[in-house]
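User: Structure tokens for both sequences below?

Assistant:
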Amino acid sequence: MFSMGMPVEALMEKVGIGISTWILDRQGLIENGAIVLVGPGHNGGDGLVVARELYMAGVEISIWCPFPLKKELTQKHFDYAIRIGIENLEHKPDSNSDSLWIEALFGLGQSRIISDEIVHLLNTKKKSSPDKLISIDVPAGLDSDNGNTISNTSFKASSTLSLGLFKSGLIQDSAIDFVGRIERLDIGIPQKILAELPETQPLRISFADLSTFTWPKPSKSKSKYQRGRVLVIAGSEKYKGAASLALNGALASGAGSVSAILPNSVSSALWSTHPEVLLSGDLDVLPDGSSDFSKVLNEVDLNRFDSILLGPGLGIPKEKVIFCNALQDFKGLLVLDADAINRLSITSKGWEWLNDRQGPTWLTPHLDEFKRLFPLIDSSNPLRAGIEAAKTCSCSVLLKCAHSVISDPQGKTWQIGQVNSSIARTGLGDVLAGFVSGMGAIGLASTKQLDTNLLAASALMHAYAGASCLRGSNASAICTFLSEIIKKESS
């Protein structure tokens, strides 16, 4: 915007007026007045415009400048604020007061270390008035690109008002405890600029975006075998429940046919627990209780299926086993989850095995599994790690974390921007693996092609179901609710 001629002064006015309007719309925040903490740069200037607008609206307002002002424009706004009667506090404000604090210390692109004294002051304020500590753009002490704290110092805001677009650092897991509620404030970015963003620009996706996604719908004339065929290879003597949950996830997708290869201890009761699932074979049980899938896959025509899910609950054998080469020749979608990823990571080829695959592959690791498969990729920033991994192994990667990242080999990337910590529970990963396998099978059956945006939308739908389910937060309840949502979407 600046390179196109937008004056800094004009943008500062838009930002300040936008923030003050947001605050004035929430009168409960300012019923006991407000204090703006003014930083040395343009973030401090934004805060001073907010102070001016609130003052003009009749709010009891004061400012505190813990650092010398360095920007000429910020100094001008400070001078004007003083002249019109806004109080400049000579000492640090009382953190036990019930006034609203508006933190405008550093903002975007921070590198300056803030003192422990200021961090303590802000965190004390947060404890005394949990909803009355707002940060402009980025909380002080937080890196706006990666979400890490600068020299381990930051504070916990109640709300962060992100200007223009969401800063990628604000939605990384490392930032969750510091940003509070995140709100995006429009600053009038021209559509021309947005239209010129590259396709590889990471996109924050939220539950509202589900209404814009068109789910694959096979023709009504198609039979069950033409509406997505899924094969689930899962479970072991130790992890029997993982197979059941993965099958539930696949069934919830609405795929026309779900088959399974399971250990005998699970398959022997399949008729009573999952009567709609077709049994395609039994997994061999190794002495340590884990499952071996290499032999049975050579006895099955894999290309009868649109997608194959391999991994949930297989266990990790004490001895190295061959990662079945029959899967490399499979032309449908291969979804590798959990112990399939762990097993691949200890083979001689590791992730390089994926480059020889004939069909598309989706990987669904959590962070520890990701580290095992990609030990040379820095995983401290999940967004960057997911992008690098997808390009490296030529697969689509769903890196599961609080704000899960989905990336394809061409660099298109999505990150889920809403989080509900109550759904971080055992079994939901198995449901997710089955669900995306089913959705991928439906996608292939419907269009004969696959796009990673289907993986992203499926992961987002799974997150939505977890956050919205009223029956509970356990995997079985959420899976049932997910099935109901998909049925409505497909009608």
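Moving on to the next sequence.
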Amino acid sequence: MWRHFATLCAIPRASKHEAALLEYLSAWAAGLGLATARDAVGNLVIRKPASPGREQEPGVILQGHVDMVCQQNSGTGHDFHQDPIRPLLKDGWLRSENTTLGADNGIGVALALAVLEAEGLSHPPLEVLLTVDEEAGMGGALGLAPGLLQGRRLINIDTEEWGHLYLGCAGGMDVNATYHYANEPLPVGWISARIALTGLTGGHSGIDIHKERGNAIKLLVRLLGELPADLWRLIALDGGTARNALPREAFATIALEVASLADLQTTLAASADRLALELKGVEDRLSVRLSELPGLPAPAMARPAQKQLLAALNAAPHGVARMSLAVPGIVETSNNLGVLSVGNGQARANFMVRSLVDSAAQAHARRIADLFTLIGADCQLTDGYSGWKPNPESPLLALAQQVYQQQFGGEAKVEVIHAGLECGIIGAKYPGLDMLSFGPTIHGAHAPGERVEVDTVAKSWQFLVALLAALPKT
């Protein structure tokens, strides 16, 4: 398993750029004598015959996605399209210090590949479904071809808390707002400066959304709103790099008079101190810096447009909108303002909405769109996907609970996850699939410093092998 994960670290696999890895895996499977199939969007299926005596049993599908979220700390200089991931083993965890590790979902993929390669395991006919483009909009699952799969049970290996069995997940959609504005020339003698808000924890926009971590975009917009409006003008504003990651950094380029620089620095420092106090214990590495930039400033946003845009961004929701009444303790509906880009006459903002209830996701997305429509922005609702409706009577779940008890001497927790798994989409395309999800403990997915607990990977392998052996004949 670890050898396969090392291969996944060595071959770049950003969303929509998985071709090299899939070509490698197809050749690897052919070398083992395993049949493969690809569909039009690039998903790969690798088939392994049943172990002796189990040929007539219903097949099982092991499923994971090959792409990863690509995030790095400022100044790291990592090229996710060319450079390998360099893991570090420390204190029982495998981690990547300055980039994402890709344990989400590389560990799940590696476990499935290890099952394909291992000899002597007991299992029914196997199909390993490796999907593409999961992190950038579920493109692989949404484009999954009908008739590609024959299995009747599906084990998704893409959740991140060992000892938990998942039988449902959130669905969601994106809100993309585009706002066009006019620039104006600046008074003679003005200078430009950069405000950098950095050091936030970040994380997964679904799994970590309830942890009250800071959103760098929202915090920087707040700080800008606390600066005296007549002393500065906005030239550019950027934050976040992935729709499904909590933004860790945001940057604003502003124009101002030289004489106002000291006053703005004082005001900004006071506001930053208030933020640090509010977020104490959650975001203890928060940093806000104002630095003068060389050269003449570029044209700035017209004042009316600046006021409108910043007001809309400040008023826009982020975080938990509603907790579930049906599944206590689980977030029902949330959204993440994940990416913002403002400059050269255009502002683009992406919000990723999640919900256990499809109609609630649609309603929350429309509220966000309506807010930006009020300032004249064009808003599109895209990349919608359904959630995975829980089936507490699932035979696969009941069997998994028994196997977990036998292997580890305790009860697994049965949960619904506030994140997008591909199970709901696949289940809609292949009605009647009995589905379950589990995985090792992964912390910090979608953020630099992502890490996986090594011991839980071993337990995940033990559990997967035992579960395949215990699957009934009908």
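User: Anything stand out in the second?

Assistant: The chain has two domains: 2-169+388-470, 173-385.
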